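W.,

You were right to be curious about this one. When I first looked at the sequence I had no strong expectations either way, so I just let the prediction run and decided to look at it fresh. Below is the sequence, 247 residues in total, followed by the output.
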Amino acid sequence: MPTPAPSLVLVHGAWGGGWVWRRVLGPLRDAGFEVHTVTLTGDGERAHLRRPDIDLHTHIADVLGLVEMEELERVVLVGHSYGGMVVTGAAVELQQQHPGVLAGLVYVDAMFPQPGDGWGVAHPPEVAAARLAAAAEHDNALPAPNAEAGFDLSPEDAAWLNRRHVPHPFGMYRQPLDYDAALLESVPRLFVDCTDPAYPTIEPVRRLVRQEPGWQVVEIPTGHFPMVTTPLELVAHVRGFAEALPG
């Protein structure tokens, strides 16, 4: 009897929501995958739950809660941008609490924290200072950037993101993710590098995944939102990775 396809759990980045994956859901499900999207507490349609004390562990719990409530047994966690922090933390928890459930990890132009790293650890001092000041003025939430600049989006797609992006909870900006890296060494990992234009804050991860063993790296010549700009190419890479995972 063939091994069933893994379940995909898609985790958005800062300011987003489960809605950002809309263009990849149909193709992934048509390919035979069970697909779930997580909207992190305080984002998307859960913006009404935003509060100053939301932190990284809140968002990790969002992902774990979905995996547990849906009783998923063979899971690929897919994180975009800041969502890479979240899926890394969730992956560690799954390895500790539910061994055998995690099948793979996909980082879509996403952060991959080393043990002890936080979201803002690699940001230049002037960027960090500006973000801290902006969050302080908005009840510990970071206003969304204008999607019309720096993301290589069509005017229509930039307007779509601008309408839906909401201020992102900021409690995790300096919060380190402490974990035992050995827990993830044997987990298959794919990094989807969006190269045109390359999003500056992901640059340290781009270098890391090409130096560390255990990574597959693919490139898409598009901006930071491939699920919006090149959804079918992103689907092809995720599908190829997931279908090749050991049963």
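Here's what jumped out at me. The first strand starts at residue 7 and ends at 11. And, maybe more interesting for your project: The two ends are 11 Å apart (CA to CA).

Coffee later to discuss?

I.
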